[in-house]
Design a protein that fits this description.
Shape: globular
Distance between the termini: 23 Å
Helix content: 25-40%
Radius of gyration: 15 Å
Oligomer: single chain
Mean pLDDT: 95
CATH class: Alpha Beta
Largest sheet: 5 strands, antiparallel
Structural class: alpha+beta
Number of strands: 7
Number of domains: 1
CATH architecture: Alpha-Beta Complex
CATH topology: Peptide Deformylase
Number of helices: 3
Length: about 160
Amino acid sequence: MQIITLGDELLRQKAKIINKIDNEIKETAVKMLEILKQEKGVGVAGPQIGIMKRIFVVQIDGGDELVFINPSILETSHTTNKYEEGCLSIPGVYAQVVRSESIKIQAWNEKGRPFTLEANGLLARVILHEYDHLEGVLFLDHVSEKKRDKLVQKYEKIRREPKK
């Protein structure tokens, strides 16, 4: 498994519901957490590794490893904040993105147990970012068209540069 990058059509497709949380899904979650650590990210979603299923994992600053399967956003706050976001699928590109300050989400964990989580600040932002991936949405979609065009050009330039 490896991270797919901007330009791959899978990043723009909606992920499918997981009908059964079996050993394959549990192994997928473990591999996703390994990729997250290897890439030094805070979240990764199934579509980012070519798995078109509704699963993402999150770990912030060495905190708990969280697995979200078939998540549903139940509530988002009216209060928003702006924060610089990046994405493992668009390396080297960052933009200020406005998102809800707090959320309430329901999902299942890798053991097949349902849970509800209220999150705010960075955790809420990361969850919303990863949830967007399940919907075929990238953080670039949250900025103006002009800004998005500049960021895509920057990414293309970075991608063409020889690896050091």
